[in-house]
Amino acid sequence: MKILALILSVIALGLIGFNATKIDFAAPFENDSIIAIITIFASLCALVLLQILLVSKKIEQKTKQAS
User: Fold this and answer.
1) Which of 8, 38, 42, 65 minimizes the number of CB atoms within 10 Å of its CB?
2) Does the predicted model carry a pTM greater than 0.70?
């Protein structure tokens, strides 16, 4: 699970980097720029969810060790 989360995190970071180059800062809310912004936010949400998953797995392991 940890390796899968790491791979997905790297993919999400790659998408953020790629889409950051697609933003036209002169008109950020027009045409392809808005799509790039939406994709960046979606990738950030994926990163947050993956981090929550990893933390919950660590908590689960510690509770199993304690009992």
Assistant:
1) 65
2) yes
Digit-coded pLDDT (tens) for 30-65: 888 999 999 999 999 999 999 999 999 999 999 999
Between helix 32-66 and helix 2-20 the angle, nearest 10°, is: 160
Domain assignment of residue 20, yes or no: yes
Look up the domain containing 18 and give its range. 2-57
Classify residue 12: in a domain, yes or no.
Answer: yes
Judged against a pLDDT cut of 90, whether residue 17 lies above it is answered with yes
* Residue 63, in any domain of the structure: no
Q: How many domains does the chain have?
A: 1
Q: How far is the C-alpha of 30 from the C-alpha of 37, rounded, in Å?
A: 10
